[in-house]
Every structure is written in C-alpha cells, then in structure tokens.
Amino acid sequence: MQKQSNFRTDLHFSSNKDDWETPQYLFDELNERFNFDLDAAADRENAKTNVFYSKKDNALENEWNGNVFCNPPYSRGGGMYQWVKKAYEEHLRDPYRVIVLLIPARTETKYFHEFIFGKAKVEFLKGRLKFEVNGVPHPHNAPFPSVLVIYGGKEDL
Question: Tens of pLDDT along 66-89?
Fold first, then answer.
C-alpha cells in the first residue's frame, strides 16, 4: 500500500524550505503603498526589487538602505529571531523609512515580544497565503497564518 502525501508534511511546507516566494499580487500591493528600494532576502530568480541581498550577500551583516521589503527564511535554521532583530535595529538606525517583514504569525515567540509588539504596526493577513515556487503559486495554502510587520513610515501604529 502506497502512503499518501499529507500536504502539511510535504517538503513545500516543511520548515526546511527557506525560499518561499512572496505572491506577486501581495508584493505589488505593498510596493504601491511603500515604494520599496531593497528586497533584503532574495536571490536573482525571485527578487522583487532591482536591489536585493542574496544569501551570499548576507543581509544580516549589511546596512539596509531605503524602504525595505523582507520575506526572510522560514526554516528553523533560517534564524527568524536574527532577521526580526535586524529589521528592528535598522528601523532604529533610520526611523523615517519603512521596513516591512512578511513572516509567519507567531505571536508567542521571543522575537515577537522583543522586537515587534508595541514597536511596529502589525497587519494580520486574512486567510493563508499561497506562496510561489519559481513564480508559480503553490497548489496549497501555507499551513500557517502570515503577518506584515511594518516599521517606520508615516502610517500610524
């Protein structure tokens, strides 16, 4: 008897996958609002802006300039804590620009309480996103809700 694949344990939804691509429609809506200059966690194939940091460039060790979009690695080894901390520190360095993170809505985490709660605008996304793989929407929704974390800008918290 062949074991059926459960989409929640499929590699596409594994916490071992780092390169979830932001749905283009969502990025377009956000870019209309915030006019991004930098995609802080991308590669040549999925960058949403002309200027981006790839894994090789190591965005965690470089300054982020201009308005920044960041859909950081989601894997356990991807260092979500470090990415959220970096976004917060970059906001403190220049609070007049905008930094937007697209991350899983995990309000119980240490990073949420240390760097997001009371320090950023939080927009919970309705439903669950269909991330893209090679520019094509994945057939299943993500097994987790997503949130936008917005630092800076002229919008009120």
Answer: 999 999 988 766 699 999 999 999
